Every structure is written in structure tokens, then in C-alpha cells.
């Protein structure tokens, strides 16, 4: 049936809790209120208050509880209300969750899932609109995934919950109710080391993740009318990264534009550009281009739309890349 991304998240959580009684949910307002975006609505009534726990407004406490739960045989799914609130939880994620397996030489793992909305698009203050996924992707021991549609949200979340190691699941908040598609509750996860090809193409590779994947698809449709055939790649799992799929695509097309919602400096697009430049240099027909917002804090309210990369920006970058290769 057709559903929104937030409904797909709720569906995946319900399946995971039905399959495994050790799966528990915790976070601010996830119980009685069903979450700030309603991603956990109905779960407390269905599975009870011992498995869906409301916590205080304390991200450090949420992360610490989740680490402790995972060390005692549970599979906690913790929610941080917005990515901009995760910084207080980073001590537990970096110093403990990410290091359990290495610290104990494989005797212990940390099957923790941390869900958080990311990105802009709802005209909220800056802490509610950040895309700092590059900070998380820099940490060895953490797995980072980013949903780009209801179906990918369902599959990635199920795989994250079943994984023996800590996984951060990024959910693009402007797609929570901005996109509907058919989602089947089949219980199949999406492997956590797999780029997704949304659209095959031969002329240029468009790489993105999260909400920007949908903008890339819109741009690709428009560019097709100009005779430019775009391959649209969804990174999906930022860490561990399926670099081979990206290299295969760029080797085929010889051109690449990377689109991110994060600011340009130090962003994940820079990492991808460097690695593609190193490994696919002789296949490139033009320089790799990046599309991103300016290096400023996300502006509030109506200025937010002007801050975000637009489909028009992607079109300009692709045309520049095509022209440079002639």
C-alpha cells in the first residue's frame, strides 16, 4: 500500500518488535505522543510501556541508556529528535558504542540503532535542520545509513535493527510526508553496504543520499529532454561505503556530479570526490563537481528554501560537466 516515509518507519519498527522481543524503543515523546513526527505512533499501545520508553529531554542519557541496554542483550532503538541535538550523545557513541567490538577483541558488540531526522525543509530553527552526517561517517565502528524514500526507510531500518553493531539511521525530515510510494511489509532489509541505482544512464553519474536523491531524479527527468542520460546513484549507506558501485558507474559515464544538503567544506561529498578522483582519474572526461549549500548555518523560515540546493543548481552543474568534456 502507498504510505509516507514516516509511516514506513513506524511499520518497520512494529515488524522488528514483533520479530524480536529484545527490541525496545526509547526517546523523547516516543511513547504517549508517538514521537515528534509521529514515527512511533501506536507502538506503546501495542507493545506496552516496558518496550516503548519515554525519556527526559537529555540526549546524553538516551545514548547512555541505549549503550547499556545493548550490552545486556537488548536491541535498543533510540530516537534523537533532530540531528542537531545529537552532539550531547556523541561521547557515548564515539567512546563506547563504536569501540565495543574492538575494545573486547570481538567478544562483545553493540547492537544499538539510533534514529534521527536530518536536513532542512520544514522551516524550523537551525538545530532542527542540520546535515552533519560527515561528522558521524568519520567515526570508525559506526555504520551510517540515510533513507531517501519510504521503501528505503523501511528496508534500511530493519537491517539496522538486526545488525550486531551500532547503526545511525538518518531520516530526511522534508520527505517524512512529502513523498508516498508502495511499501510492502515483507520484512526484507536493504543490505548495509549497497549503493542503490535509482536510474541507469550512460552520460553522467549523479550521486546523492537522503532527500537530495529525489531532486536528482527530478533533474535527470528534465535533462533527458535535452538528450543527457543521467545515472542516479543513492549512496544509502555512507559507512561502510559501497565504493565499487560508484566507481563502476563513473567509469561507465566518465562524468560525475555529487549533490549534498550539507555545507560544502568538509562534507561527505568531498570524501566521495577525493576517492573517485584517486581511483577513477583516467576514466574521467571532466572534473567532478559538487552541489551544496553555502558554508553558513541553516537560515530560519523562508530563507531556508534559498539556502537549499535546488533542481536548477543540479541542472547547471550537469551542463557544466557535459560542456567541460567536449
Automatic annotation (TrEMBL):
Keyword Oxidoreductase attached: yes
Q: What is its cofactor?
A: thiamine diphosphate
InterPro entries in the cross-refs: THDP-binding, Transketo_C/PFOR_II, Transketolase-like_Pyr-bd, Transketolase_C
Q: Which domain of life is it from?
A: Bacteria
Which terms are listed as keywords in the entry?
Oxidoreductase, Pyruvate, Thiamine pyrophosphate
Gene Ontology MF annotations: oxidoreductase activity
Start and end residues of each Transketolase-like pyrimidine-binding domain: 3-178
Q: Which PANTHER family match?
A: PYRUVATE DEHYDROGENASE E1 COMPONENT BETA SUBUNIT (PTHR43257), PYRUVATE DEHYDROGENASE E1 COMPONENT SUBUNIT BETA (PTHR43257:SF2)
General function of this protein: The branched-chain alpha-keto dehydrogenase complex catalyzes the overall conversion of alpha-keto acids to acyl-CoA and CO(2). It contains multiple copies of three enzymatic components: branched-chain alpha-keto acid decarboxylase (E1), lipoamide acyltransferase (E2) and lipoamide dehydrogenase (E3).
This protein is called what?
Answer: 2-oxoisovalerate dehydrogenase subunit beta
Q: Which organism is it from?
A: Fluviicoccus keumensis
